[in-house]
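Please produce the structure of this protein holding dioxothiomolybdenum(VI) ion.
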Amino acid sequence: MKRHQKIDTPQRDHRLDGMVQGVLGAPLDRIDGSVKVQGLAPYAGEARLPGLAHGVLVRAPQIGRITGMDTDRLQRFPGVLLVLTEGLPRNSAQGTADTAPPSSGDRADYVGQPVALVVAETLEQAQHAALQAEVAIAATGGVTDPEAADTPVETPEKKQLDLGDLDRALAEAAFRLDETYRTPTLSSAPLEPHAAVAHWQDGRLELHGSYQMLKYNVAQLADALDVAPDRIRLLAPFVGGGFGSKLGIGAEAVGAALAARKLDRPVSVRLHRRQVFEMTSRRSETRQRIRLAADRDGKLTGIGHDSLVSNLPGEAFSEPVAQGTRFNYAAPNRRILHQIARVGRISAGSVRAPGEAVGVTAFETAMDELALQIGLDPVELRLRNMPDCDPVSGKPFSSHMLAEALREGAGRFGWQHRPPRSRREGEWWIGMGMASAVRVNMLMESEARVTLSPAGEALVETDMTDIGTGSYTILAQIAAEMLGLPMARVSTRLGDTDLPPAAGSGGSFGASSSGSAVYLACLELRSRIARSLGCAETDLTLKDGDAIHANHRTPLAEILAGESWSAVGHVEPGQTAKDVRAGTYGVNFAEVAVNDVTGETRLRRMEGVFACGRILNEKTARSQCHGGMIWGIGMALTEALLHDPRDGHAVNRDLAEYHLPVNRDTPAIGVHFLDERDDWVGPLQSKGIGELAICGAGAAVVNAIHNACGVRIRDYPATPDKVL
Ligand code: MOS
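Below is the modeled complex.
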């Protein structure tokens, strides 16, 4: 039995509001937490298959044409089984494309590109040989600076916007701003390094891989290996963070699969930390020129957002910097210029909240500057510019609680009690700043199966991934609520492509999409239970394992009478995805202390308020926001992957030199969710949450720095040398 729904109309079915189990939304601990902290959760690189050989990727030392490799010499190193130089992709694939990433061929397009795989009996032998590898390259040099005069730049027509007359708005404005902001290359830096363990049997590949979107990853692998997708099984029951860098397969997966096929034995390829920085996708650096025109009352009349990002030649992805600028504030005149420089730097791809993470951050810095210029409270400036529909298309918002978030956040943070000028405590200047958060919201096609066992227990199955986000837990919560079962009677299986194909984890659509599929499967089971009791599904109450109808309580086990009942739910976006503008909204407030002597900035406290539709688990949702806000601290203060100006290589490619905020850098963080149900976005009325809090979080911090000491940072991050 299958229940399929295209989201074509607003969801008037508020069934979950009347649910009685009381599980959905509750701040439950993650059900996978215990195996994780015990070290019992199997991660991809830990698969120990009999006869396992180990592969280590070799990096390109220069940009140019690869003229040869000393494979014969490497083959004679102890333990070496194979040196693979063909068929490796030059980077990890992007987004939802189901084709393999482009292969290296005989070109090294950037320094650090994987160009060979050395496979040996042991990891140490493979590492030893790979270190000795000499890749001969006819160095052609290459353009590596996106802003250099001779760098090729593309301006794809589809990505531009010109609405009204921005020049005129600027000319006639009472207040205008024209400033340029820069954000550096950023790394996703997941805790679990990318890894793949491949094993072929009877022409069928089984691959343990650390990936986010398995149904696409299978298609990509099939394309790279030239086999049918149904000959591939991908296993990713646990993923230790992805943040976009595991959306697509990389050289580790293709290399492991090719080598395993050649050697006819299992092969493991695990990136080491420096390779995670260098061989997986980065977030492009950006240059953003922002122009704002405002009238006397602080109402925006014009918005201009020009961005320059970069990627390798031939890559489809480009950081959609101004995505949030299409709908953040009202203004009749709006121009967006989007340009892509083609450079020999690590491939650029999706990193947490691609677009808004850096675009909203720069924009919200500009808004702070404008507010000061006008002499308006920064919160008030934003409130005066609330759009009542999508400013570009005129479509209605599915729901829009930015104004409420601004007011609630200001109250919680104590914004109105801000001292009129910055305070000083010894060597420290204290200041406060804020920034709105906006992010697009999406639903993606997703499928799940729910099975009721004769004992009245439920099993949820889908190839959805849990990348540390809480998928295991929220999917079980949805099933528990819908089927009236205690959590202990629901189990969840994820991360296996033998299970129904899910949306996967990306773009903040994972929870709502895979959750809707689980919801629909449960709805089908509820209908069947109702039929067997001879009542309407809407007259049925399921609670604590019993079906209650007309004051009659029947245990589920009795209804099932020794059978198992299974149902599949399938959701896909329909017309509403085109008819409304769905987004998520929020605000970040920050208080900082800036050291007058050293220029060091310390966060004192941070407070976020977010509106993301129904919250499925208050604890995991809050953790997502903590993560996003901490990324904001990193973006504001410390994170930058630096490229050597001579050859573009990433200089600080480890966790010692790429500075992520640690506990010591992170203050008490408050997160509050507004009570919101969005009828347009799916039966759960929930929206994406993973990527919202990062959008603009860095701006709240640099705006606070300005408030503290008067230094305006437009070149992120605000390292002490820039603050002093
Ligand atoms: Mo995300 S950057 O779509 O994992």
